[in-house]
Amino acid sequence: MAYKSLKSLCLSFELIRAEDIKKGYLKNYRMLFVPGGWASNKLKALGEKGIEEIKRFIHEGGNYFGICGGAGLATMDGLGLLNINRKPTKQRVPSFSGRISLNINEHPIWNKANHSLPITHHPSQIFHAWWPSQFVVNAMDIKILATFQEALPDSYSSDLNVGDIRKNRNWKELEELYGINLDPERLKDEPAVVEGRFGKGRVLLSLIHFDTPQDENGAEVLTNIWEYLAGQGNRASIKSSRAAAKYDKLFLNNNHSSTSLLRYCSEIIEFGIRNFLWFWRTPMLLQWRRGVRGLEYCTLYIMAKELASLEEDLSRKIPDYKVDIAIDLLNDFFNFKEKVLRLLMLEREAMQRGMITYEYSDSPEILALRKELFGDNKSYGGKFKGFLDQIDSIIYQSLILQEKIIKEDSGAPERI
Fold first, then answer.
1. In this predicted model, what pLDDT tens digit does every residue of 200-251 receive, in sequence order?
2. Pair 239, 414: CB distance under 8 Å
3. CA 299, 154, 160: angle at the middle one, nearest 5?
4. pLDDT tens per residue across span 96-144
């Protein structure tokens, strides 16, 4: 999501992984942008060395920008860049998603394109939040740049449409039924975007997804943040110390394309749609019923789709190009897919008998399959994480290769 938004806005950036950070590559940059995703998994990937490198980078004058999970990573629960904690799950609204208005305080990131008119009036102050945590700000020197206000009718809390519930139901009754906080009014006046200092560096944290595709307001703010934290010169000046991907490293002389992977993922998505377990809210995000995991299946599908698109694009540049997906990975994924379809059918049947959640079920078979496929935490594990890591690596290498070819075709000089 972040990658596509930055590309569409022509903002200068380079992909960097946890292993690159551990090797000290941050010294080549002005800003580290960490997008959404589970902060706990990011923390594990970084390890002590990565954490140390990020803190040194910011303390010596580099800037940090985090969205959602990337924002959570910077709190005292993670890197400790700002004296902020995240509210415990039981105290927050854990499953809000969609459009929400903000009350914003004057700051350069809110300026309109002409840099003279701040974004201060409805509907210009409406943005997207996708399952945000909630901040507890513990220090007076942390600036609150925006607070949550009213959730729009097309937003959701868990699998409940906000507009429909406001007209027809009582949030309190539903909260008792679901066993979690649901009323988006609980978000009102809570910090949504904050800024502080860590040593010489700026740290800007947002629970709002300014990188939501096709969000004009978010795009405007994202562009402003790039100028504010990275400087205008960043759009044409960063030197990478990473070795460029080689044409023959992962991609050539392989008979297995990404088509099979995409077909398997599509079967999962179509099965869920047929069985009324989810529907598409945006081109990149599903809305799923409580009791099944939707984000994980959505993630696999979008990644497989991206791989197929990359393969098609790169095959026009490199004769006989194929994305290197090992036959063992495809075979393992086929077996994973078959077990997923079994799990989804069992979960659908369980919904007819009573309420289930991602962690609760009275069916031993459901619990066993969930543990095998996704682990037993809300943040994912199991076989899913293994596939995710492998596909992520292939996408990363493909994107690096694509960028290299684009640079060579354009005759652009090496960035400095």
1. 999 999 999 999 999 999 999 999 999 999 985 444 333 333 433 333 333 3
2. yes
3. 75
4. 999 999 999 999 999 876 444 455 444 569 999 999 999 999 999 999 9
d(CA 365, CA 380): 19
> In a 10 Å sphere around its CB, with 0-12 CB exposed, 13-18 middle and 19+ buried, how is residue 284 labelled?
middle
Residues 219 and 156 in one domain: yes
pTM for the whole thing? Answer: 0.89
Return the CATH number at 217.
Answer: 3.40.50.880
**What does the alpha-carbon distance between residue 81 and residue 74 come to, in Å, rounded to a whole number?**
5
Tell me the residue range of the domain where 66 lies. Answer: 2-236
Residues 104/120, Cβ–Cβ less than 8 Å: yes
- Cβ atoms of 163 and 153 within 8 Å: the answer is yes
Report the C-alpha gap between 149 and 100 in whole angstroms: 7
Q: DSSP assignment of 359-380, as one string?
A: S--S-HHHHHHHHHHH-SSSS-
Residues 220 and 291 grouped into a single domain:
no
- Quick one: how many helices (H) and strands (E) in the chain? 12, 13
E strand or H helix that includes residue 168: helix 162-168
- Residue 328 within a domain: yes
Let me know whether 374 and 268 are in one domain: yes
